[in-house]
């Protein structure tokens, strides 16, 4: 006899392949199936043992999985996109994830052609493994309020990276806790001020590539204090080495300031970008990734819940001894079906957002056209806040529809919630006491 799920599928007139074509890029499903077949044979990729591991064991496993995926990448000649699919199929952020998702892209976006030629091959070979160091204990999405400083010393042609207090400790960086040997650090640029005796003038936040661990011993370099921040809420991001770092007068060469748009001359003269908000481009890229990621988490959670409710039977209507499928109850349908539609809508909207980002980036890089920047900042902020909040609530609602079984880790929904819920706060959060207001134009983004 066919299962309840097989019966439900055969009775539907929907073309599931066409629906998938709305949600996936061309060729993605085929590549995903091919890569999944390879990973199914890998003992390290078996997920059923993960709930029984502690934090240290999970991070150790994350390192081993990352190393194995790199070997498989070379064996099967995976493209960067295929390697990303292999990482995503682990259902957890890995220690290597932020190197590929944040560190390397920011060099591509903010580094000059010469800097890209210097750093990108080393990033691809993993001689350089990096993280993106923005958030501090006292400031997160208020980038202009960051306290880490980068003072320029014309005598040595070096920047001195410094954490002036505990509040300026960089915090939350994925990839920093145990793996990274470099960091893309956002710091306040300070140059000698000729109008004040021995004083400095601030020129706002800029990006700097800072070596943080020895390439041979992997021990912290002089002036670097670095480590893990510990377990996260609900066990989320258990395989990601979120870390902290402080700088005590760490010197880096002038060339380590990413200078595609603005730069400092050897003499200490500041050459500003043509547009003061060009540096927002990399932050928009990070924020634009979040809605698509959490929308897929909600889609998976709702899929689990619907399949469960098709199989699960509860109570009889009195006309037969067989109990009714839970999915047949109107109250369950009213809870789950709108969440499925919402996930579809958010996935499609998030993909459109990413296409707009690529269009904006192409205009900035190739033509110096920043006309889309303010709009992209507004859209990415609003959609990120809306979708991350909706998805977190939607995943929890899907879990409730599984009854008591939803509280088991093995239902698969708990880990999805744990990894979705922090998206409401990282890269900015809405004010719960007021509507979202984004004030943005060509002269001011805040």
TrEMBL record:
Family recorded in the similarity comment: Belongs to the acyl-CoA oxidase family.
Pfam families, alphabetized: ACOX_C_alpha1, Acyl-CoA_ox_N
Keyword presence, Flavoprotein: yes
Taxonomic path: Eukaryota, Fungi, Dikarya, Ascomycota, Pezizomycotina
Name of the featured protein: Acyl-CoA dehydrogenase NM domain-like protein
SUPFAM superfamilies xrefs: Acyl-CoA dehydrogenase C-terminal domain-like, Acyl-CoA dehydrogenase NM domain-like
Locations listed in the record: Peroxisome
Cofactor(s) needed by this chain: FAD
Originating organism: Morchella conica CCBAS932
Main location: other
Swiss-Prot/TrEMBL keywords: FAD, Fatty acid metabolism, Flavoprotein, Lipid metabolism, Oxidoreductase, Peroxisome
Domain (Acyl-CoA oxidase C-alpha1): residue spans on this chain: 280-428
GO CC term, one of those recorded: peroxisome
Residue stretches making up the Acyl-coenzyme A oxidase N-terminal domain: 29-128
A GO molecular-function descriptor: fatty acid binding
GO terms for biological process, alphabetical: fatty acid beta-oxidation using acyl-CoA oxidase; lipid homeostasis
UniProt xrefs under Gene3D superfamilies: Acyl-CoA dehydrogenase/oxidase, N-terminal domain, Butyryl-CoA Dehydrogenase, subunit A, domain 2, Butyryl-CoA Dehydrogenase, subunit A, domain 3
């Amino acid at each position: 006899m066919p299962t309840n799920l097989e019966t439900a599928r055969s009775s539907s007139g929907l073309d599931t392949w066409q629906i998938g074509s709305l949600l996936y890029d061309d060729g993605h499903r085929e590549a995903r199936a091919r890569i999944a077949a390879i990973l199914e044979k890998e003992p390290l990729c078996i997920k059923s043992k993960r709930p029984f591991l502690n934090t240290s064991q999970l991070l150790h496993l994350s390192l081993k999985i990352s190393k194995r995926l790199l070997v498989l990448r070379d064996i099967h000649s995976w493209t960067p996109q295929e390697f990303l699919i292999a990482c995503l199929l682990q259902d957890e952020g890995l220690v290597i994830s932020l190197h590929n998702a944040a560190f390397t892209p920011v060099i591509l976006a903010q580094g000059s052609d010469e800097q890209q030629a210097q750093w990108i091959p080393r990033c691809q070979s993993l001689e350089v493994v990096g993280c993106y160091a923005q958030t501090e204990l006292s400031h997160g999405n208020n980038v202009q309020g960051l306290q880490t400083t980068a003072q320029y010393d014309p005598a040595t042609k070096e920047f001195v990276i410094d954490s002036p207090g505990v509040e300026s400790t960089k915090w939350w960086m994925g990839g920093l806790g145990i793996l990274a040997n470099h960091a893309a650090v956002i710091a306040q640029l300070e140059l000698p001020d000729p109008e004040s005796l021995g004083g400095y003038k601030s020129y706002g936040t800029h990006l700097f590539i800072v070596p943080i661990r020895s390439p041979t011993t992997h021990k912290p370099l002089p002036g670097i204090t670095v480590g893990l921040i510990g377990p996260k809420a609900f066990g989320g991001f258990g395989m990601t080495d979120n870390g902290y770092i402080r700088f005590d007068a760490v010197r880096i060469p002038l060339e380590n300031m990413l200078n595609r748009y603005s730069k400092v001359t050897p003499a200490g003269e500041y050459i500003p970008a043509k547009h003061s908000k060009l540096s927002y481009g990399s932050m928009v890229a990070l924020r634009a990734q979040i809605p698509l990621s959490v929308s897929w988490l909600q889609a998976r959670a709702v899929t689990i819940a619907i399949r469960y409710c098709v199989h699960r039977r509860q109570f009889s209507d009195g006309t037969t001894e067989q109990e009714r499928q839970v999915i047949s109850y109107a109250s369950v349908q009213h809870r789950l079906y709108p969440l499925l539609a919402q996930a579809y809508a958010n996935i499609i909207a998030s993909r459109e957002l990413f296409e707009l980002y690529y269009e904006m980036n192409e205009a900035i890089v190739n033509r110096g056209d920043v006309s889309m920047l303010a709009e992209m900042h507004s859209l990415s902020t609003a959609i990120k806040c809306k979708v991350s909040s909706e998805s977190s609530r939607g995943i929890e609602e899907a879990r409730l529809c599984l009854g008591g079984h939803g509280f088991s880790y093995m239902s698969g929904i708990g880990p999805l919630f744990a990894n979705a819920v922090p998206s409401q706060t990282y890269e900015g959060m809405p004010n719960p006491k007021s509507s979202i207001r984004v004030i943005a134009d060509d002269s001011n983004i805040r």
